[in-house]
Amino acid sequence: MDNEKIPLKIKTENNANQPAGHLKPERQMTELEVLVRARYPLIYVVSWEEQRLSALVARIAQRLDKRVFEWSITTGLVPMGTSIQSQKHCDSASKDPLVALDTVVEHAESALYLFKDFHPFLKGQNMAIVRRLREIAASLKHTYKTIVIISPMFQMPAELEKDLTIVDFDLPSEKEFNVLLDRIIEEVKDNPRLNVTLNQVRREQIVHALLGLTLAEAENVLAKTLVQYRSLGDTSLPVIHNEKKQIIRKNGLLEYFDSNESIDSIGGLDELKMWLTKRAVAFSDQAREYGLPAPKGVLLLGVQGCGKSLSAKAMSNILQLPLLRFDVGRLFGSLVGSSEENVRRAIKVAESVAPVVIWVDEIDKAFRGSRGSSASTDGGTSARVFGTFLTWMSEKTKPVFVVATANDVTQLPPELLRKGRFDETFFIDLPSWLERKEIFQVHLARRGIKFSDTELDRLAESSNGFSGAEIEEAIISTLFDIFYDKQEMSAQKLLQNIQKAVPLSKMMSEDIDRLRKWAEGRARFATSEKYSVKPDADKRKIEI
Question: How far is CA 453 from its chain centroid?
Answer without folding.
Answer: 44
